[in-house]
Design brief:
With about 140 residues, the protein is an alpha/beta fold. The protein has a single domain, classed as 3-Layer(aba) Sandwich (Rossmann fold), CATH 3.40.50. It contains five helices and six strands; from the N terminus they run E-H-E-H-E-H-E-H-E-E-H. Bound molecules: flavin mononucleotide.
């Protein structure tokens, strides 16, 4: 059954944007529709049931700047109608590996969202083309859903 997906992007340097674009392409090929939110706001996605949050980690384990206001707004949101996947990009040479994605996972769960799977963390040291890994994982998730 075709669905509409909202891809919510947290990115400083563009890698997570490439991942979002690749996921969108794959979903559209499967007959779905997609909106990519590179400057996400709660207002834009609060009535959308299918979220894919795709975020890197920057600073000392922080979310990228573009997604911080969105994360803040989620702290008081009712997400009980939201089904979400989370994909995290990070680098295992940091002690704070993928803390941004893990923070989003905790936040979504605490606000009542249904997580379709545990956050999928992608180490960019191991996967220099993270979009390939992300699409492979996501297609596997949809097959088994
Ligand atoms: C200044 C800086 C800080 C970073 N801090 C972290 C971190 O705390 N944890 C982590 O897992 N990765 C960290 N990374 C790695 C990025 O998350 C990784 O390079 C990612 O692919 C960047 O994706 P983006 O281009 O979408 O922002 C950091 C990278 C930079 C340049």
């Amino acid at each position: 059954m075709s669905k509409h997906y909202s891809i919510i992007v947290g990115s400083m340097l563009g890698a997570s944007e490439y991942v979002a674009d690749a996921l969108a392409k794959s979903l559209i090929n499967m007959g779905n529709t997609v909106t990519i939110h590179n400057t996400p706001t709660l207002e834009d996605v609060k009535d959308e049931p299918n979220w894919i949050v795709c975020t890197s980690t920057h600073g000392a384990g922080e979310l990228p700047d573009n997604i911080k206001p969105f994360a803040k707004a989620l702290e008081t949101a009712d997400l009980s109608k939201v089904n979400a996947f989370i994909i995290g990009l990070g680098d295992t040479s940091y002690d704070t590996y993928c803390f941004g994605a893990l923070m989003m996972e905790n936040l979504l769960k605490s606000r009542g969202a249904t997580l379709e799977a545990s956050a999928h963390l992608i180490d960019v040291l191991e996967h220099p083309i993270p979009e390939d890994e992300a699409v492979m994982w996501f297609e596997r998730m949809l097959e088994t859903a």
